[in-house]
Amino acid sequence: MINRDRVGKWAEETGIELTSEKLEALDRYAEEVAETNKLFNLTAITEPEDMEILNIIDCLSIVPFIPEGARVADVGTGAGFPGMVIRIMRDDVELTLIEATNKKLDFVCRTAEKLGYKVEGTHMRSEEAARSDLRGSFDVVTARAIAPLPVLLEYTLPLLKEGGVLLAMKGPAAEEEIAQAANALSELRGKIKVVHDVELPSGEKRSIIEVVQNGKCPDKYPRASGAIRKKPL
């Protein structure tokens, strides 16, 4: 499915340790996604090279920024990106996959078990999860292609412990989104720590925005989903 040599070379060049066993697991997972995608829509990315670059390699880029032993939530995991890439690469973390579409979550959890990996699946919208006992319980929250940053912050920051980190995977417009998110950051007690620049083998630019939960998120957030999207902070 994926070109293992090419993925391995990219990982080596970027300082990511990728064993042959982990590379095989990533390849097998990509194959499972591609096959299941023929039955129902998991991802719009279907071509093998696109799956390799835009799903596997793109999601590998987040792995070095997750602290050892962290409790991690992948919000809106969808087909398991970046959640299952994190699971395959990092057996030291405790991983919860949060997904509103039960069919997608069921696929990821069943496939993880099939490949020999343990994950915790939570069938909820992110704002529902942030109103449950999961609120304020994670060291790291990851999110990819969910919403513009001002909206994403309200969905995700309430899930973090104080001092926890959101790793928001973004495209080349990251700086523009950060500028638009100034009020949301202030309201939610978030602070931009650093922006990590990533270049994919295709030359496409990516950014990983690292946001620290720099205090207790006010209890009134998150609002209902409709309010969050219609009137971002």
The count of strands amounts to: 7
Return residue spans where pLDDT drops below 50 for at least 5 consecutive residues.
none
Number of domains: 1
CATH homologous group name: Vaccinia Virus protein VP39
Average pLDDT, rounded to a whole number, is 95
CATH third-tier fold name = Rossmann fold
Biggest β-sheet strands, sense, barrel: 7 strands, mixed
SSE pattern, N- to C-terminal: HHHEHEHEHEHEHHEEH
What is the architecture at the second tier of CATH? 3-Layer(aba) Sandwich
**What's the overall geometry?**
globular
Q: Which strand-content bin applies to the residues?
A: 15-25%
Oligomer: single chain
Termini distance?
42 Å
Q: Order the strands across the largest sheet as they lie in space.
A: 3-2-1-4-5-7-6
In which range does the helix fraction lie?
25-40%
* Number of helices in the DSSP assignment: 10
Main structural class: alpha/beta
Produce the secondary structure layout:
Layout: H1 4-13, H2 20-36, H3 48-60, E1 71-75, H4 83-89, E2 94-99, H5 102-115, E3 120-123, H6 126-129, E4 138-144, H7 149-156, E5 160-170, H8 174-180, H9 182-188, E6 190-199, E7 205-213, H10 225-230
Parallel strand pairs: 1-2, 1-4, 2-3, 4-5
Antiparallel strand pairs: 5-7, 6-7
Helix pairs in contact: 2-4, 2-5, 7-9
